[in-house]
Amino acid sequence: MEYTTLLLDMDGTFLDFGAAERSAFFRAMDNNGYEADEGTYKLYSRINHGLWEAFERGEIDKQTLLFTRFGRLFESMGVEGDGAAFEKEYQLLLGEGHELMEDAWEVLEYLYKKYDLYVVTNGVEATQRSRLKISGIERFMKDIFVSEAVGYQKPQIEFFDYCFAHIDGFEKEKAMIIGDSLTSDIQGGNNAGVACCWFNPSGKERSLELRIDKEIKSLKELLQFL
């Protein structure tokens, strides 16, 4: 199949969200006088991951996710804190995180000369756009679609319907989504009826029965078939 349009997930695929998240978390905790270690961060990660999964299933909305996670963390830690205010500071710090995944820049420089590239990402609009700008990635993109602005999130079909409606001359059969999340990117690609490339650097097992057209462990593998 000859593709013309690539729908690119960012966090965990081209942007190293783990590094950005970790830095923002510890900086915000330190700024507010909370003691935090690896155990604290793992606790936050479990709470956050569970809320994101509920969000992707449509069980909670974005505001509930964002303004619940730190309140739950503080409760679990047995400390008092304003989770909503902490979230706002955390988002500002997260917006400064622009670390790239290995080979991301080289691969994007290659892809944008051959394909129309679009960001398809869940997250907070201001935070994601800040990271894409600071990292320089936005220069490669024809457009950027963030769930908060779209009004729906991956893997919902409505998210992709919105994206497709805003891409001039879009042809579904010539599009591929590339991302690291089975529940968000690959499930979303299946729902939307586009080809799917799973970025799986850690060699995770397929936990869901999904159509995966390509599976890669490094971004450079994209250059072998694109």
From TrEMBL:
This is Noncanonical pyrimidine nucleotidase, YjjG family. Transmembrane segments: none annotated. GO terms for molecular function: 5'-nucleotidase activity. It comes from the Bacteria. InterPro entries: HAD-like_sf, HAD-SF_hydro_IA, HAD-SF_hydro_IA_YjjG/PynA, HAD_2, HAD_sf, PGP-like_dom2, Pyrimidine_5'-ntase_YjjG. Pfam families: HAD_2 (PF13419).
